[in-house]
Write a structure and sequence with these properties.
The complex is a heterodimer of chains A (about 500) and B (about 120). With about 500 residues, chain A is mainly α. In chain A, about 75% of the residues lie in helices and about 0% in strands. Chain B has about 120 residues and is mainly alpha-helical. In chain B, helix 2 packs antiparallel against helix 3. Chain B is built from 3 helices and 2 strands. The chains are: A mainly alpha (about 500), B mainly alpha (about 120).
Chain lengths: ~500, ~120
Protein backbone atom coordinates (compact mmCIF):
# COMPACT_ATOMS: atom_id res chain seq x y z
CA UNK A 1 0.00 0.00 0.00
CA UNK A 2 1.21 3.48 -0.75
CA UNK A 3 2.29 4.80 2.65
CA UNK A 4 2.13 8.50 1.79
CA UNK A 5 -1.32 8.09 0.24
CA UNK A 6 -2.67 6.25 3.29
CA UNK A 7 -1.35 8.79 5.77
CA UNK A 8 -2.58 11.70 3.62
CA UNK A 9 -6.03 10.11 3.39
CA UNK A 10 -6.28 9.66 7.16
CA UNK A 11 -5.10 13.23 7.81
CA UNK A 12 -7.59 14.65 5.29
CA UNK A 13 -10.42 12.65 6.82
CA UNK A 14 -9.53 13.77 10.34
CA UNK A 15 -9.35 17.41 9.24
CA UNK A 16 -12.90 17.17 7.87
CA UNK A 17 -14.14 15.52 11.08
CA UNK A 18 -12.46 18.14 13.28
CA UNK A 19 -13.92 20.95 11.18
CA UNK A 20 -17.37 19.47 11.67
CA UNK A 21 -16.66 19.25 15.41
CA UNK A 22 -15.60 22.91 15.44
CA UNK A 23 -18.75 24.11 13.68
CA UNK A 24 -20.86 22.00 16.04
CA UNK A 25 -19.05 23.58 19.01
CA UNK A 26 -19.89 27.05 17.69
CA UNK A 27 -23.55 26.14 17.31
CA UNK A 28 -23.87 24.36 20.67
CA UNK A 29 -25.70 25.99 23.55
CA UNK A 30 -23.09 25.51 26.22
CA UNK A 31 -24.33 24.48 29.67
CA UNK A 32 -27.56 23.06 28.21
CA UNK A 33 -27.81 19.31 28.84
CA UNK A 34 -30.62 18.84 26.31
CA UNK A 35 -28.53 20.47 23.61
CA UNK A 36 -25.35 18.65 24.58
CA UNK A 37 -26.73 15.12 24.91
CA UNK A 38 -29.73 15.18 22.55
CA UNK A 39 -28.97 17.94 20.03
CA UNK A 40 -31.80 19.97 21.58
CA UNK A 41 -34.34 17.29 20.44
CA UNK A 42 -34.29 18.92 17.00
CA UNK A 43 -32.77 16.15 14.86
CA UNK A 44 -34.39 16.11 11.41
CA UNK A 45 -35.11 12.99 9.36
CA UNK A 46 -31.90 13.07 7.32
CA UNK A 47 -29.80 13.42 10.47
CA UNK A 48 -31.78 10.85 12.44
CA UNK A 49 -31.46 8.19 9.75
CA UNK A 50 -27.73 8.98 9.44
CA UNK A 51 -27.10 8.75 13.16
CA UNK A 52 -29.23 5.62 13.70
CA UNK A 53 -27.43 3.96 10.82
CA UNK A 54 -23.88 5.03 11.70
CA UNK A 55 -24.28 4.53 15.44
CA UNK A 56 -25.62 1.00 15.11
CA UNK A 57 -23.27 -0.23 12.41
CA UNK A 58 -19.70 -0.41 13.58
CA UNK A 59 -16.51 -1.84 12.12
CA UNK A 60 -18.09 -5.24 12.60
CA UNK A 61 -20.77 -4.57 9.99
CA UNK A 62 -18.12 -3.58 7.50
CA UNK A 63 -15.38 -6.10 8.24
CA UNK A 64 -16.77 -8.78 10.53
CA UNK A 65 -20.12 -9.16 8.74
CA UNK A 66 -18.81 -10.17 5.28
CA UNK A 67 -15.97 -12.11 6.93
CA UNK A 68 -18.41 -14.09 9.08
CA UNK A 69 -20.50 -14.95 6.01
CA UNK A 70 -17.28 -16.13 4.37
CA UNK A 71 -16.20 -18.27 7.32
CA UNK A 72 -19.48 -19.59 8.73
CA UNK A 73 -21.82 -19.34 5.71
CA UNK A 74 -25.56 -19.25 6.32
CA UNK A 75 -25.12 -19.47 10.09
CA UNK A 76 -24.72 -15.69 9.99
CA UNK A 77 -27.86 -15.01 7.92
CA UNK A 78 -29.66 -13.80 11.06
CA UNK A 79 -27.64 -10.60 10.52
CA UNK A 80 -30.37 -9.67 8.01
CA UNK A 81 -33.26 -10.48 10.34
CA UNK A 82 -32.31 -8.33 13.28
CA UNK A 83 -31.24 -5.42 11.12
CA UNK A 84 -34.59 -5.33 9.32
CA UNK A 85 -36.81 -5.97 12.36
CA UNK A 86 -34.82 -3.92 14.90
CA UNK A 87 -35.57 -0.52 13.34
CA UNK A 88 -39.28 -1.40 13.25
CA UNK A 89 -39.20 -1.63 17.05
CA UNK A 90 -38.28 2.05 17.00
CA UNK A 91 -41.75 2.69 15.57
CA UNK A 92 -43.48 0.49 18.17
CA UNK A 93 -41.70 1.60 21.37
CA UNK A 94 -40.33 4.93 20.14
CA UNK A 95 -43.51 7.07 20.04
CA UNK A 96 -44.24 6.75 23.78
CA UNK A 97 -40.57 7.13 24.65
CA UNK A 98 -40.39 10.26 22.48
CA UNK A 99 -43.57 11.84 23.92
CA UNK A 100 -42.54 11.13 27.52
CA UNK A 101 -38.98 12.29 26.88
CA UNK A 102 -40.20 15.60 25.51
CA UNK A 103 -42.80 16.07 28.23
CA UNK A 104 -40.52 15.36 31.19
CA UNK A 105 -37.11 16.23 29.72
CA UNK A 106 -35.64 12.73 29.91
CA UNK A 107 -32.06 12.35 28.73
CA UNK A 108 -31.13 8.79 29.69
CA UNK A 109 -32.99 5.44 29.84
CA UNK A 110 -32.77 5.64 33.65
CA UNK A 111 -34.63 8.98 33.66
CA UNK A 112 -37.69 7.33 32.10
CA UNK A 113 -37.66 4.11 34.11
CA UNK A 114 -36.97 5.76 37.46
CA UNK A 115 -39.69 8.37 36.98
CA UNK A 116 -42.38 5.80 36.19
CA UNK A 117 -41.41 3.56 39.08
CA UNK A 118 -42.16 6.31 41.61
CA UNK A 119 -38.82 8.12 41.28
CA UNK A 120 -36.98 5.00 42.38
CA UNK A 121 -33.39 5.91 43.27
CA UNK A 122 -32.15 2.33 43.35
CA UNK A 123 -33.62 1.65 39.90
CA UNK A 124 -32.01 4.80 38.53
CA UNK A 125 -28.58 3.85 39.86
CA UNK A 126 -28.89 0.24 38.66
CA UNK A 127 -30.01 1.35 35.18
CA UNK A 128 -27.12 3.82 35.00
CA UNK A 129 -24.64 1.11 36.02
CA UNK A 130 -26.00 -1.34 33.42
CA UNK A 131 -25.81 1.38 30.74
CA UNK A 132 -22.13 1.99 31.48
CA UNK A 133 -21.52 -1.78 31.71
CA UNK A 134 -23.06 -2.18 28.23
CA UNK A 135 -21.12 0.71 26.73
CA UNK A 136 -17.64 0.13 28.15
CA UNK A 137 -16.73 -3.22 26.54
CA UNK A 138 -18.72 -2.31 23.44
CA UNK A 139 -16.66 0.91 23.15
CA UNK A 140 -13.39 -0.93 23.86
CA UNK A 141 -14.02 -3.37 21.06
CA UNK A 142 -14.55 -0.49 18.61
CA UNK A 143 -11.22 0.98 19.62
CA UNK A 144 -9.51 -2.37 19.36
CA UNK A 145 -11.31 -3.29 16.10
CA UNK A 146 -10.26 -0.12 14.27
CA UNK A 147 -6.66 -0.50 15.41
CA UNK A 148 -6.38 -4.18 14.49
CA UNK A 149 -7.89 -3.58 11.05
CA UNK A 150 -5.78 -0.52 10.29
CA UNK A 151 -2.65 -2.35 11.47
CA UNK A 152 -3.48 -5.27 9.20
CA UNK A 153 -4.32 -3.20 6.14
CA UNK A 154 -1.30 -0.94 6.52
CA UNK A 155 0.97 -4.01 6.72
CA UNK A 156 2.08 -2.99 10.20
CA UNK A 157 2.77 0.62 9.18
CA UNK A 158 0.40 1.81 11.92
CA UNK A 159 1.10 -0.33 15.05
CA UNK A 160 -1.86 -1.49 17.16
CA UNK A 161 -0.87 0.67 20.15
CA UNK A 162 -0.51 3.81 18.02
CA UNK A 163 -3.88 3.08 16.46
CA UNK A 164 -5.60 2.75 19.85
CA UNK A 165 -4.11 5.94 21.24
CA UNK A 166 -4.60 7.90 18.01
CA UNK A 167 -8.23 6.96 17.55
CA UNK A 168 -8.98 7.58 21.25
CA UNK A 169 -7.47 11.07 21.05
CA UNK A 170 -9.34 11.94 17.84
CA UNK A 171 -12.73 10.69 19.02
CA UNK A 172 -12.19 12.14 22.48
CA UNK A 173 -11.40 15.60 21.12
CA UNK A 174 -14.40 15.99 18.86
CA UNK A 175 -16.81 14.31 21.29
CA UNK A 176 -15.67 16.46 24.23
CA UNK A 177 -15.67 19.66 22.17
CA UNK A 178 -18.66 19.17 19.91
CA UNK A 179 -21.07 17.05 21.98
CA UNK A 180 -23.91 15.17 20.34
CA UNK A 181 -24.31 17.75 17.56
CA UNK A 182 -20.78 17.01 16.33
CA UNK A 183 -21.46 13.31 16.64
CA UNK A 184 -24.72 13.40 14.67
CA UNK A 185 -23.20 15.56 11.93
CA UNK A 186 -20.13 13.35 11.64
CA UNK A 187 -22.36 10.25 11.78
CA UNK A 188 -24.06 11.37 8.59
CA UNK A 189 -20.72 11.76 6.81
CA UNK A 190 -19.29 8.56 8.26
CA UNK A 191 -22.45 6.57 7.54
CA UNK A 192 -22.43 7.73 3.94
CA UNK A 193 -18.75 6.82 3.48
CA UNK A 194 -19.10 3.33 4.81
CA UNK A 195 -22.43 2.63 3.07
CA UNK A 196 -20.94 3.79 -0.23
CA UNK A 197 -17.97 1.50 0.18
CA UNK A 198 -20.19 -1.48 1.04
CA UNK A 199 -22.34 -0.94 -2.04
CA UNK A 200 -19.27 -0.30 -4.21
CA UNK A 201 -17.54 -3.32 -2.69
CA UNK A 202 -20.51 -5.58 -3.45
CA UNK A 203 -20.69 -4.35 -7.06
CA UNK A 204 -16.96 -4.88 -7.50
CA UNK A 205 -17.23 -8.33 -5.95
CA UNK A 206 -19.87 -9.39 -8.50
CA UNK A 207 -17.49 -8.21 -11.21
CA UNK A 208 -14.48 -10.06 -9.74
CA UNK A 209 -16.57 -13.21 -9.26
CA UNK A 210 -17.39 -13.31 -12.99
CA UNK A 211 -20.95 -11.98 -12.87
CA UNK A 212 -24.03 -12.52 -10.72
CA UNK A 213 -25.00 -16.11 -11.58
CA UNK A 214 -21.45 -17.36 -12.17
CA UNK A 215 -20.38 -15.81 -8.86
CA UNK A 216 -22.98 -17.75 -6.88
CA UNK A 217 -22.36 -20.96 -8.81
CA UNK A 218 -18.60 -20.80 -8.23
CA UNK A 219 -19.11 -20.08 -4.55
CA UNK A 220 -21.53 -22.98 -4.06
CA UNK A 221 -19.21 -25.31 -5.99
CA UNK A 222 -16.26 -24.28 -3.79
CA UNK A 223 -17.99 -24.92 -0.44
CA UNK A 224 -21.58 -26.23 -0.73
CA UNK A 225 -21.76 -26.91 3.03
CA UNK A 226 -21.65 -23.16 3.71
CA UNK A 227 -24.90 -22.57 1.81
CA UNK A 228 -27.30 -24.65 3.89
CA UNK A 229 -27.86 -25.33 7.58
CA UNK A 230 -26.34 -28.69 8.47
CA UNK A 231 -26.29 -30.82 11.57
CA UNK A 232 -23.90 -28.45 13.26
CA UNK A 233 -26.52 -25.66 13.26
CA UNK A 234 -27.36 -24.51 16.80
CA UNK A 235 -30.92 -23.17 16.80
CA UNK A 236 -30.73 -22.00 20.44
CA UNK A 237 -27.63 -19.95 19.77
CA UNK A 238 -29.18 -18.59 16.58
CA UNK A 239 -32.31 -17.54 18.47
CA UNK A 240 -30.29 -15.92 21.28
CA UNK A 241 -28.35 -13.73 18.88
CA UNK A 242 -31.48 -12.92 16.91
CA UNK A 243 -33.39 -11.73 20.00
CA UNK A 244 -30.60 -9.77 21.63
CA UNK A 245 -29.53 -7.92 18.48
CA UNK A 246 -33.12 -7.17 17.43
CA UNK A 247 -33.97 -5.55 20.77
CA UNK A 248 -30.52 -3.96 20.89
CA UNK A 249 -31.86 -1.46 18.34
CA UNK A 250 -33.95 0.21 21.03
CA UNK A 251 -32.50 -0.97 24.34
CA UNK A 252 -28.80 -0.13 24.02
CA UNK A 253 -28.40 3.23 25.77
CA UNK A 254 -26.94 5.15 22.82
CA UNK A 255 -29.76 3.97 20.51
CA UNK A 256 -32.47 4.61 23.14
CA UNK A 257 -31.27 8.20 23.42
CA UNK A 258 -31.72 8.65 19.67
CA UNK A 259 -35.44 8.07 20.22
CA UNK A 260 -35.53 11.25 22.34
CA UNK A 261 -33.76 13.28 19.65
CA UNK A 262 -36.31 13.41 16.80
CA UNK A 263 -37.77 16.83 16.00
CA UNK A 264 -41.26 15.43 15.26
CA UNK A 265 -43.30 12.22 15.33
CA UNK A 266 -43.09 11.98 11.54
CA UNK A 267 -39.30 12.13 11.69
CA UNK A 268 -39.21 9.30 14.19
CA UNK A 269 -41.58 6.85 12.50
CA UNK A 270 -40.55 7.49 8.91
CA UNK A 271 -36.86 7.23 9.87
CA UNK A 272 -37.53 3.82 11.36
CA UNK A 273 -39.10 2.49 8.15
CA UNK A 274 -36.36 3.91 5.91
CA UNK A 275 -33.60 2.65 8.23
CA UNK A 276 -35.11 -0.84 8.11
CA UNK A 277 -34.78 -0.97 4.30
CA UNK A 278 -31.33 0.64 4.33
CA UNK A 279 -30.03 -1.70 7.01
CA UNK A 280 -31.28 -4.78 5.20
CA UNK A 281 -30.21 -3.96 1.68
CA UNK A 282 -27.33 -1.49 2.02
CA UNK A 283 -25.54 -3.26 4.85
CA UNK A 284 -26.53 -6.88 5.30
CA UNK A 285 -27.27 -7.83 1.68
CA UNK A 286 -24.11 -6.21 0.36
CA UNK A 287 -22.19 -7.90 3.18
CA UNK A 288 -23.71 -11.24 2.18
CA UNK A 289 -22.74 -10.72 -1.46
CA UNK A 290 -19.15 -9.83 -0.53
CA UNK A 291 -18.78 -12.65 1.99
CA UNK A 292 -20.48 -15.44 0.06
CA UNK A 293 -19.08 -14.66 -3.38
CA UNK A 294 -15.57 -14.43 -1.90
CA UNK A 295 -15.88 -18.16 -1.19
CA UNK A 296 -15.56 -18.77 -4.94
CA UNK A 297 -12.52 -16.50 -5.37
CA UNK A 298 -8.90 -17.49 -5.18
CA UNK A 299 -7.65 -15.60 -2.14
CA UNK A 300 -4.58 -17.73 -1.50
CA UNK A 301 -4.15 -19.62 1.75
CA UNK A 302 -6.92 -18.50 4.13
CA UNK A 303 -6.28 -21.11 6.83
CA UNK A 304 -6.65 -19.51 10.25
CA UNK A 305 -7.90 -16.23 8.78
CA UNK A 306 -10.11 -14.23 11.16
CA UNK A 307 -13.39 -12.74 9.91
CA UNK A 308 -12.12 -9.13 10.03
CA UNK A 309 -9.33 -9.96 7.59
CA UNK A 310 -11.53 -10.96 4.62
CA UNK A 311 -12.42 -7.52 3.24
CA UNK A 312 -8.83 -6.21 3.48
CA UNK A 313 -7.61 -9.43 1.82
CA UNK A 314 -10.05 -9.04 -1.08
CA UNK A 315 -9.09 -5.39 -1.61
CA UNK A 316 -5.37 -6.11 -1.38
CA UNK A 317 -5.76 -8.94 -3.92
CA UNK A 318 -8.04 -7.27 -6.43
CA UNK A 319 -7.79 -3.51 -5.99
CA UNK A 320 -4.87 -2.42 -3.77
CA UNK A 321 -5.22 1.19 -4.88
CA UNK A 322 -8.47 1.42 -2.88
CA UNK A 323 -6.69 0.49 0.35
CA UNK A 324 -6.74 4.09 1.53
CA UNK A 325 -10.52 4.29 1.04
CA UNK A 326 -10.87 1.12 3.06
CA UNK A 327 -8.82 2.54 5.93
CA UNK A 328 -11.01 5.67 5.97
CA UNK A 329 -14.19 3.59 5.89
CA UNK A 330 -12.96 1.58 8.87
CA UNK A 331 -12.20 4.77 10.77
CA UNK A 332 -15.66 6.07 9.85
CA UNK A 333 -17.53 2.93 10.89
CA UNK A 334 -15.72 2.53 14.21
CA UNK A 335 -15.54 6.20 15.22
CA UNK A 336 -19.23 6.83 14.55
CA UNK A 337 -20.19 4.12 17.02
CA UNK A 338 -17.52 4.89 19.60
CA UNK A 339 -18.28 8.62 19.84
CA UNK A 340 -21.98 7.99 20.55
CA UNK A 341 -21.05 5.50 23.23
CA UNK A 342 -18.76 8.00 24.95
CA UNK A 343 -21.45 10.69 25.10
CA UNK A 344 -24.11 8.18 26.16
CA UNK A 345 -21.94 6.79 28.98
CA UNK A 346 -21.22 10.32 30.08
CA UNK A 347 -24.93 11.17 30.28
CA UNK A 348 -25.59 8.01 32.33
CA UNK A 349 -22.81 8.87 34.74
CA UNK A 350 -23.79 12.52 35.12
CA UNK A 351 -27.55 12.03 35.32
CA UNK A 352 -28.00 8.65 36.88
CA UNK A 353 -25.01 8.04 39.13
CA UNK A 354 -23.43 11.36 40.11
CA UNK A 355 -26.80 13.09 39.76
CA UNK A 356 -28.34 10.60 42.21
CA UNK A 357 -25.93 11.45 45.00
CA UNK A 358 -25.55 15.18 44.42
CA UNK A 359 -28.03 17.81 43.25
CA UNK A 360 -26.48 19.29 40.12
CA UNK A 361 -27.18 22.58 38.39
CA UNK A 362 -26.75 22.74 34.61
CA UNK A 363 -23.26 24.19 34.76
CA UNK A 364 -22.00 21.61 37.27
CA UNK A 365 -23.67 18.84 35.26
CA UNK A 366 -21.96 19.85 32.03
CA UNK A 367 -18.58 20.19 33.73
CA UNK A 368 -18.97 16.72 35.27
CA UNK A 369 -19.94 15.24 31.93
CA UNK A 370 -16.83 16.58 30.20
CA UNK A 371 -14.55 15.28 32.95
CA UNK A 372 -16.26 11.91 32.71
CA UNK A 373 -15.88 11.79 28.92
CA UNK A 374 -12.12 12.33 29.24
CA UNK A 375 -11.87 9.74 32.04
CA UNK A 376 -13.95 7.24 30.05
CA UNK A 377 -11.73 7.58 26.98
CA UNK A 378 -8.57 7.19 29.09
CA UNK A 379 -9.98 4.09 30.80
CA UNK A 380 -11.07 2.62 27.46
CA UNK A 381 -7.57 3.18 26.08
CA UNK A 382 -5.82 1.62 29.09
CA UNK A 383 -8.23 -1.33 29.07
CA UNK A 384 -7.74 -1.93 25.36
CA UNK A 385 -3.95 -1.76 25.68
CA UNK A 386 -3.63 -3.98 28.77
CA UNK A 387 -3.10 -7.71 28.43
CA UNK A 388 -5.88 -8.61 30.89
CA UNK A 389 -8.19 -6.15 29.13
CA UNK A 390 -7.59 -7.85 25.81
CA UNK A 391 -8.41 -11.23 27.35
CA UNK A 392 -11.65 -9.92 28.89
CA UNK A 393 -12.64 -7.98 25.79
CA UNK A 394 -14.24 -10.76 23.78
CA UNK A 395 -16.39 -12.30 26.58
CA UNK A 396 -17.49 -8.88 27.80
CA UNK A 397 -18.20 -7.48 24.37
CA UNK A 398 -20.17 -10.60 23.43
CA UNK A 399 -22.52 -10.03 26.32
CA UNK A 400 -22.43 -6.20 25.92
CA UNK A 401 -25.58 -5.71 23.89
CA UNK A 402 -27.20 -8.69 25.62
CA UNK A 403 -27.01 -6.89 28.96
CA UNK A 404 -29.35 -4.22 27.61
CA UNK A 405 -32.08 -6.91 27.39
CA UNK A 406 -32.62 -6.44 31.13
CA UNK A 407 -34.27 -3.10 30.33
CA UNK A 408 -36.99 -4.78 28.28
CA UNK A 409 -39.46 -5.82 30.98
CA UNK A 410 -39.21 -2.62 33.07
CA UNK A 411 -39.69 -0.64 29.85
CA UNK A 412 -42.75 -2.68 28.84
CA UNK A 413 -44.15 -2.08 32.32
CA UNK A 414 -43.58 1.67 32.15
CA UNK A 415 -45.06 2.11 28.69
CA UNK A 416 -47.77 -0.53 28.43
CA UNK A 417 -48.64 -2.29 31.69
CA UNK A 418 -50.15 -0.37 34.59
CA UNK A 419 -49.91 -3.40 36.90
CA UNK A 420 -46.07 -3.33 36.91
CA UNK A 421 -44.39 -2.57 40.22
CA UNK A 422 -41.12 -1.00 41.30
CA UNK A 423 -39.74 -4.10 43.09
CA UNK A 424 -40.55 -6.16 39.97
CA UNK A 425 -38.65 -3.73 37.73
CA UNK A 426 -35.65 -3.60 40.06
CA UNK A 427 -35.35 -7.32 40.78
CA UNK A 428 -36.00 -8.39 37.20
CA UNK A 429 -33.22 -6.09 36.03
CA UNK A 430 -30.85 -7.12 38.81
CA UNK A 431 -31.62 -10.85 38.55
CA UNK A 432 -31.39 -10.96 34.75
CA UNK A 433 -28.12 -9.03 34.73
CA UNK A 434 -26.57 -11.22 37.43
CA UNK A 435 -27.47 -14.41 35.56
CA UNK A 436 -26.09 -13.08 32.25
CA UNK A 437 -22.81 -12.01 33.82
CA UNK A 438 -22.53 -15.19 35.88
CA UNK A 439 -23.01 -17.38 32.81
CA UNK A 440 -20.73 -15.31 30.63
CA UNK A 441 -17.89 -15.33 33.15
CA UNK A 442 -18.38 -19.03 33.94
CA UNK A 443 -19.43 -18.43 37.57
CA UNK A 444 -22.71 -20.33 37.14
CA UNK A 445 -23.80 -22.90 34.59
CA UNK A 446 -27.07 -23.62 32.81
CA UNK A 447 -27.73 -25.83 29.77
CA UNK A 448 -25.99 -24.41 26.72
CA UNK A 449 -29.22 -24.68 24.70
CA UNK A 450 -29.46 -20.89 24.82
CA UNK A 451 -26.82 -18.21 25.23
CA UNK A 452 -26.31 -16.20 28.47
CA UNK A 453 -28.32 -13.24 27.15
CA UNK A 454 -31.45 -15.30 26.52
CA UNK A 455 -31.16 -17.11 29.86
CA UNK A 456 -30.84 -13.71 31.53
CA UNK A 457 -33.94 -12.51 29.69
CA UNK A 458 -35.91 -15.58 30.82
CA UNK A 459 -34.95 -14.89 34.45
CA UNK A 460 -35.82 -11.23 34.01
CA UNK A 461 -39.29 -12.08 32.60
CA UNK A 462 -40.07 -14.60 35.37
CA UNK A 463 -38.97 -12.20 38.11
CA UNK A 464 -40.85 -9.30 36.55
CA UNK A 465 -44.23 -11.03 36.43
CA UNK A 466 -43.66 -13.04 39.62
CA UNK A 467 -42.70 -10.08 41.79
CA UNK A 468 -45.36 -7.86 40.19
CA UNK A 469 -48.19 -10.09 41.37
CA UNK A 470 -46.81 -10.10 44.91
CA UNK A 471 -46.38 -6.34 45.23
CA UNK A 472 -48.39 -3.14 44.74
CA UNK A 473 -48.52 -1.17 41.47
CA UNK A 474 -46.76 2.16 41.17
CA UNK A 475 -48.57 5.28 42.32
CA UNK A 476 -51.74 6.53 40.68
CA UNK A 477 -49.87 9.65 39.57
CA UNK A 478 -47.24 7.65 37.66
CA UNK A 479 -49.84 5.53 35.89
CA UNK A 480 -51.83 8.59 34.94
CA UNK A 481 -48.74 10.44 33.63
CA UNK A 482 -47.29 7.57 31.60
CA UNK A 483 -50.40 5.78 30.43
CA UNK A 484 -53.76 7.34 31.30
CA UNK A 485 -52.88 10.82 30.03
CA UNK A 486 -51.71 9.33 26.73
CA UNK A 487 -54.68 7.07 25.99
CA UNK A 488 -56.08 9.29 23.29
CA UNK A 489 -52.70 10.25 21.87
CA UNK A 490 -51.89 6.83 20.37
CA UNK A 491 -53.75 4.89 17.66
CA UNK A 492 -53.42 1.53 19.42
CA UNK A 493 -55.08 2.60 22.68
CA UNK A 494 -57.71 4.57 20.75
CA UNK A 495 -58.54 1.45 18.73
CA UNK A 496 -58.73 -0.65 21.90
CA UNK A 497 -61.17 1.87 23.33
CA UNK A 498 -63.29 1.64 20.18
CA UNK A 499 -62.34 5.14 18.97
CA UNK A 500 -61.21 6.00 15.43
CA UNK A 501 -57.41 5.88 15.27
CA UNK A 502 -57.18 9.45 14.00
CA UNK A 503 -59.23 12.58 14.63
CA UNK B 1 -51.88 16.23 25.95
CA UNK B 2 -50.97 15.80 22.28
CA UNK B 3 -53.56 14.43 19.89
CA UNK B 4 -56.47 14.89 22.28
CA UNK B 5 -59.49 17.18 22.21
CA UNK B 6 -61.15 18.63 25.31
CA UNK B 7 -64.15 16.34 24.81
CA UNK B 8 -61.89 13.31 24.55
CA UNK B 9 -60.04 14.26 27.70
CA UNK B 10 -63.33 14.22 29.57
CA UNK B 11 -64.24 10.88 28.00
CA UNK B 12 -60.84 9.45 28.89
CA UNK B 13 -61.53 9.98 32.57
CA UNK B 14 -64.65 7.89 32.39
CA UNK B 15 -63.51 5.33 29.86
CA UNK B 16 -60.09 4.28 31.01
CA UNK B 17 -59.07 2.37 34.03
CA UNK B 18 -55.31 2.82 34.00
CA UNK B 19 -55.60 5.20 36.90
CA UNK B 20 -57.85 2.99 38.98
CA UNK B 21 -56.11 1.88 42.15
CA UNK B 22 -58.10 -1.31 42.39
CA UNK B 23 -57.97 -2.66 38.85
CA UNK B 24 -54.96 -4.90 38.24
CA UNK B 25 -55.37 -5.09 34.45
CA UNK B 26 -56.47 -2.25 32.22
CA UNK B 27 -59.12 -2.90 29.57
CA UNK B 28 -57.27 -1.11 26.80
CA UNK B 29 -53.54 -1.44 27.52
CA UNK B 30 -51.91 -4.66 26.19
CA UNK B 31 -52.44 -7.82 28.25
CA UNK B 32 -49.36 -8.35 30.42
CA UNK B 33 -47.97 -5.35 28.56
CA UNK B 34 -47.44 -7.46 25.44
CA UNK B 35 -50.66 -8.68 23.79
CA UNK B 36 -52.60 -5.77 22.25
CA UNK B 37 -56.34 -5.40 22.83
CA UNK B 38 -57.27 -4.28 19.32
CA UNK B 39 -57.64 -6.74 16.44
CA UNK B 40 -55.21 -4.77 14.33
CA UNK B 41 -52.67 -4.74 17.16
CA UNK B 42 -52.94 -8.52 17.51
CA UNK B 43 -52.61 -8.90 13.77
CA UNK B 44 -49.30 -7.03 13.85
CA UNK B 45 -48.02 -9.00 16.83
CA UNK B 46 -49.00 -12.25 15.07
CA UNK B 47 -47.26 -11.14 11.90
CA UNK B 48 -44.05 -10.32 13.77
CA UNK B 49 -44.04 -13.76 15.43
CA UNK B 50 -44.82 -15.42 12.11
CA UNK B 51 -41.80 -13.73 10.54
CA UNK B 52 -39.65 -14.94 13.44
CA UNK B 53 -40.90 -18.51 13.02
CA UNK B 54 -40.49 -18.40 9.23
CA UNK B 55 -36.93 -17.14 9.70
CA UNK B 56 -36.16 -20.11 11.95
CA UNK B 57 -37.53 -22.80 9.58
CA UNK B 58 -34.35 -23.27 7.52
CA UNK B 59 -32.33 -23.66 10.73
CA UNK B 60 -34.48 -26.68 11.62
CA UNK B 61 -34.31 -27.85 7.97
CA UNK B 62 -38.10 -27.59 7.58
CA UNK B 63 -38.33 -25.10 4.74
CA UNK B 64 -36.01 -22.97 2.62
CA UNK B 65 -32.81 -24.84 3.40
CA UNK B 66 -30.61 -25.87 0.47
CA UNK B 67 -27.60 -24.87 -1.58
CA UNK B 68 -29.18 -25.18 -5.04
CA UNK B 69 -29.51 -21.98 -7.07
CA UNK B 70 -33.21 -21.03 -7.33
CA UNK B 71 -34.71 -19.09 -10.26
CA UNK B 72 -31.12 -18.54 -11.43
CA UNK B 73 -30.90 -15.86 -8.74
CA UNK B 74 -29.04 -17.18 -5.70
CA UNK B 75 -28.75 -20.22 -3.42
CA UNK B 76 -32.01 -21.38 -1.81
CA UNK B 77 -31.26 -20.60 1.86
CA UNK B 78 -30.06 -17.09 1.12
CA UNK B 79 -32.96 -16.43 -1.24
CA UNK B 80 -35.56 -17.73 1.23
CA UNK B 81 -34.12 -15.82 4.18
CA UNK B 82 -33.94 -12.53 2.29
CA UNK B 83 -37.55 -12.93 1.16
CA UNK B 84 -38.56 -13.32 4.83
CA UNK B 85 -36.37 -10.40 5.91
CA UNK B 86 -37.91 -8.24 3.22
CA UNK B 87 -41.25 -9.12 4.80
CA UNK B 88 -39.95 -7.47 7.99
CA UNK B 89 -39.49 -4.26 6.02
CA UNK B 90 -42.94 -4.62 4.45
CA UNK B 91 -44.35 -5.18 7.95
CA UNK B 92 -42.73 -1.91 8.98
CA UNK B 93 -44.11 -0.10 5.97
CA UNK B 94 -47.67 -1.27 6.63
CA UNK B 95 -47.33 -0.56 10.35
CA UNK B 96 -46.22 2.93 9.37
CA UNK B 97 -49.31 3.54 7.22
CA UNK B 98 -51.76 2.11 9.76
CA UNK B 99 -50.22 3.18 13.06
CA UNK B 100 -47.12 5.35 12.68
CA UNK B 101 -48.54 8.00 10.39
CA UNK B 102 -51.82 7.99 12.37
CA UNK B 103 -49.87 8.85 15.51
CA UNK B 104 -48.05 11.57 13.63
CA UNK B 105 -51.39 13.00 12.43
CA UNK B 106 -52.89 12.79 15.93
CA UNK B 107 -49.93 14.63 17.36
CA UNK B 108 -50.17 17.35 14.74
CA UNK B 109 -53.92 17.73 15.35
CA UNK B 110 -53.28 17.98 19.08
CA UNK B 111 -50.74 20.74 18.55
CA UNK B 112 -53.07 22.64 16.28
CA UNK B 113 -55.84 22.29 18.86
CA UNK B 114 -53.55 23.55 21.60
CA UNK B 115 -52.43 26.49 19.44
CA UNK B 116 -56.03 27.51 18.79
Amino acid sequence: MNTALTISGIILYLIVIFLVGYFAWRKNKHDDADDWFLMGRRTNMFMLIGTLFATWFSTFAFLGGPGTFYLTGVNWLLFGFFNSMGPILVMIFGPRIWVLGKKYGFITPADLLARYYDSSRRLKILTGLVCIAVLFPYGAIQLSGISVAVNSISDGLIPYEYGVVGVAICVGIYAVIGGTRAIVWTDVIQGFIFAALLVGGAMAMVQWAGGWTAGWENAVAAAPEKFSFGESARPGNYLTLLVLWTFGWILTPHLWQRLYMADSPRTLVLSSVITSFLALFVVTFTGAIIGFMAIGLDLGDTTGMISDALVPRVFVTYMPVLGVVLVIAIFAAGMSTLDSQIISASSSFTNDLYGSVDRLDQSKKMRASRYFEITFVVLLTLFTLSESGRQLLIPLASIGVGMALVFLMPLIGALFWPRATEPAAFWSMFGGWTVMMGLQLGLISLPATFGPALWGLFVSVILFYGVTFMTNPVSLRSRQEFQGDLDMAFPETRAALGKPVTL
Amino acid sequence: MPGTTQQERQMTTSLTDVASDTVSESRHMPMLGIIPRSKMGRFFLGWAFLNLILAMLPVFDILGNGSQIVFGVMPMTIFYCYVIYTMNCVFGLIYYFLRGSAWSALHAAGREGAAQ
